[in-house]
Amino acid sequence: MRKSINIFISIIMVAGLVSCNDGGQKKGKRGAQGGLATNAAERVYVAPGELDEYYAFMSGGFSGQLAVYGLPSGRLLKVLPVFSQNPENGWGYSEETKPMLNTSFGFVPWDDSHHPDISQTNGVLDGRWVFINGNNTPRIARIDLKNFKTEEILEIPNSAGNHSSSFITENTEYVVAGTRFSVPIPQKDMSIKDYKGNFKGSLTFIKVDQETGRMNIKFQLMMPGFNYDLSHPGRDKSHGWFFFTTYNTEEAHSLLEVNASQNDKDFIAAVNWKVIEEYVNNGGGTKVPAKYAHNILDENTHTATSTMLDEVLTVNPMDVPGAVYFLPTPKSPHGCDVDPTGEYIVGNGKLSADLTVHSFTKMLDAIEKKKFDGEAYGIPILNFEDILAGVVKQPGLGPLHTEFDDKGNAYTTFFISSEVVKWKVGTWEVLDRQPVFYSVGHGMIPGGNSRKPFGKYFIALNKITKDRYLPTGPELTQSAQLFDISGEKMELLLDFPTIGEPHYAAAIPASMIAPNSRKIYKLAENKHPYAALTDGDVKVVRDGKEVHIYMNMIRSHFNPDNIEGVKVGDKVFFHITNHEQDFDVPHGFAVIGANNAELLVVPGATETLVWEPKQVGVWPFYCTDFCSALHQEMQGYVRVSPADSDIELSWSLGDE
Amino acid sequence: MRTSLKLMTLLFAMALISCGGKEEKKKETFSYDKKAPQTETTTKKEEVLPPSKRVDLTSKGVGPITSVTLDADINQTMADQGSEIYKKMCTACHRADKKFIGPAPTGILERRTPEWVMNMILNPEQMVNEDALAKELLMEFNGSPMANQNLTEVEARAVLEYFRTL
């Protein structure tokens, strides 16, 4: 509690400072952007009926979801439910999707989603899947970009605060998930005071099946008890390595804002995953008990299954020579970003005024010559000067993240001084700076985390909104800002609000996704065990206190729409198949007094809502999604009789 | 862009058609008097067949199908395939020999051309907007739209063959 008050106060103080400073600048800026002075409006205007140039997948932050925006318009296209229940379409409420939110802690209907990353082939975006991490109850989700649906969620055991996640290697061989909070591994009852030397931080490498996208944990690297904050893969020449920033190398367990800021330098951990992979393939590592859920949604049965796994392979870095090195990096680095060539690793020391850039070539050289500057828990520490490529001198205050364009420039976000700074990779000179409103976290360039960025736009994902929109009481949305970066100077084009608190985002040219986007599920491929695929399959079956209704629907009726013989105390399963085979004709289903949500059934799919009637009567259900001129007629009744009634089950539609 | 070009061409074509002699029809479609109850009573006295019973063996409707040749003999294999498709994709709204949500297909080829039937299956949105008879049918069936079940032309042809067996 005290900690959160402290944080709150400091944020307010910082924000206060920032907003005081920016007030004047902003006014000036607004004047300069009076519409007539620039053609900014024209450059973000997507005319009615026209389509955006990019899909942007922006994390939903503490909404737990993933938001899909169009760029450059900044229009919200869809909120994809991932880690949180979504009553709008029944995600996490329907019987089919409830297993997706199962964990070793039971059903967890919420999470904090942070860092989406789009799959790659040869270091270039390929648009197959987007991955995103759940930070709070450690999980990684895979969203299929044909179906725009969360198709898999894998829980990460031995992790806590799954923050340096979910970043992929350049052929999507692995999705990587690092822990921010170190914990006892395995968990046990012990004094918090004994943290130092006893807690561990796990870095999890999840293998991705190239055909199906299915994930499974290949190994967990058991690292010293630091905080593993962010990570990025090596690419091109540094492919095979993965880089993680650390803070709290002090191993403090209380008042971290002071106690974890003592060391002049923390580390970037450089992990040679190819060496460890080989070690593991040759039988290395230790299997340890671990309980974690693996949840998969099948696109033909439209149904998720949750499997509880019970062991995981762990690797002690000491057992694999050449696997891990520490690169000293000033002042609690946050973002850990690798440039498109794979040569430069940028450490954004959030309490430092400078940006530190390490050289991959120099790092390999120092390793080869064994030029070490000590060790930490047996892991060699390289000499700071030996691996340093350069320093961007005093570009701003509070650097957090760096993205890259396709012209050899880097763009770093500065939280405290609330600006984006463009600098030249290699010469480290600052080329441009633009204020943002206010206090930017991540920045994002489409493909900015790949070998081939699309350097046309930069999005600043801001933490503080304040006066950018009409006030909506004390609680505001977050704010994103779109810059045109095609010229020498960055140009602010557009503000738009975002859901939750978007941390990172990932964007891709629309042409790589849109042509494959699914329009309907084929009824012929529907393998749901309770599907009513023809009117002949329509029935109502009692199994003890359970009543299963095999129902279908099409514009604009349910079959059956009159059901009798249900009793108080029954558990009624509405299994509803949408018989439409046309694009954008979903039907909704809602029944009075349901203690969950509605269903939104897309064409060709089957979904199930459970209803436990508590009162005798005749109760209506209806379609919630305006489907045709006769939508209002799309309704039905269930007669609910007393528990001891002997009325037989019956069902009908019209006179049939 | 390409779509709008197509639309323009269509509109132009329609404009041509409407100039080209079907004046009576045009008048009917746009006539307010027609809809007044008085007129209806008078016409009722004569013989007003509901559109579902009317016979039009010339119109091919609007859509991808411009010509279908029916062999003298029914292709039973194709009809069986059509029956399966009909069962899966159509019975939510149609019964073989009675009016349900939509009209019964039995005897349909005595009232409509095979092209019209296939266009109604394959292209219902445009049909109910642009084909005069389909428009009237929509009203006769309470405005309940014929759903596009995304059949292929081959599938729609099989369903047509099945209709011949009814």
Topology of helices and strands:
The complex is a heterodimer of chains A (656) and B (166).
Chain A (H helix, E strand, L loop, with lengths): L1 H31 L7 H5 L9 E6 L6 E6 L3 E6 L21 E2 L2 E2 L9 E5 L2 E11 L4 E6 L4 E7 L8 E5 L5 E5 L21 E9 L6 E10 L2 E7 L7 E7 L8 H4 L5 E8 H9 L4 E13 L4 E13 L8 E7 L2 E6 L5 E6 L5 E5 H9 L3 E5 L2 E4 L1 H4 E5 L6 E6 L4 E6 L4 E6 L5 E6 L4 E5 L12 E6 L15 E7 L6 E8 L6 E5 L29 E5 L2 E9 L2 E3 L2 E6 L3 E8 L8 E5 L7 E3 L4 E6 L5 E6 L12 E7 L8 E3 L4
Parallel strand pairs in A: 13-18, 36-39, 38-44
Antiparallel strand pairs in A: 1-2, 1-34, 2-3, 4-5, 6-7, 7-8, 8-9, 9-17, 10-11, 11-12, 12-13, 14-15, 15-16, 16-19, 17-18, 20-21, 21-22, 22-25, 23-24, 26-27, 27-28, 28-29, 30-31, 31-32, 32-33, 35-36, 36-37, 38-45, 39-42, 40-41, 40-43, 43-44
Chain B lengths: L1 H18 L3 H8 L6 H9 L30 H14 L24 H9 L1 H7 L1 H9 L12 H13 L1
Structure, described:
Chain A: GO terms for molecular function: copper ion binding; nitrous-oxide reductase activity. Chain A: This is Sec-dependent nitrous-oxide reductase. Chain A: It is an enzyme of class 1 (oxidoreductase). The complex is a heterodimer of chains A (656) and B (166). With 656 residues, chain A is mainly β. Among the domains of chain A are: 91-331 and 381-389, YVTN repeat-like/Quinoprotein amine dehydrogenase (Methylamine Dehydrogenase, Chain H), CATH 2.130.10; 523-652, Cupredoxins -  blue copper proteins (Immunoglobulin-like), CATH 2.60.40. Chain A has a ten-stranded mixed beta sheet with strand order 6-7-8-9-17-18-13-12-11-10. The longest helix of chain A has 31 residues, at 2-32. Mean pLDDT of chain A is 94; it is low at 11-35. Chain B is mainly alpha-helical and 166 residues long. Chain B has two domains: 1-48, no CATH class; 50-165, Cytochrome c-like domain (Cytochrome Bc1 Complex, Chain D, domain 2). Helices cover 52% and strands 0% of the residues of chain B. Chain B is built from eight helices and no strands. Chain B has helices spanning 2-19, 23-30, 37-45, 76-89, 114-122, 124-130, 132-140, 153-165. In chain B, helix 5 (114-122) crosses helix 8 (153-165) and helix 6 (124-130) packs across helix 7 (132-140). At the A-B interface, strand 36 of A face helix 4 of B.
